[in-house]
Amino acid sequence: MTKFSVPQMSCGHCKSSIEKGVASVDADAVVDVDLTSREVSVRRVSNTEMLIEAMKSAGYEAHVLS
């Protein structure tokens, strides 16, 4: 599992955009979005850099936590 910090994420629309972005890179990934902590956990990461780019394309800067 890889965790990302997504500081700009704050609402359900943000959550949906992040989930769609991750799905565009890895349709089988399991995504857990925590709006309170502004963290996204992804299981089955195929390529971390591609996930960061997908979130960036959705409008959100993301940084790997673990």
TrEMBL record:
It holds the Pfam family HMA. CDD domains: HMA (cd00371). It comes from the Bacteria. Keywords: Metal-binding. Residues 1-63 form the HMA domain. This is Cation transporter. Transmembrane segments: none annotated. InterPro entries: Heavy-metal-associated_CS, HMA_dom, HMA_dom_sf. GO terms for molecular function: metal ion binding. The keyword ATP-binding does not apply. It comes from Sulfitobacter geojensis.
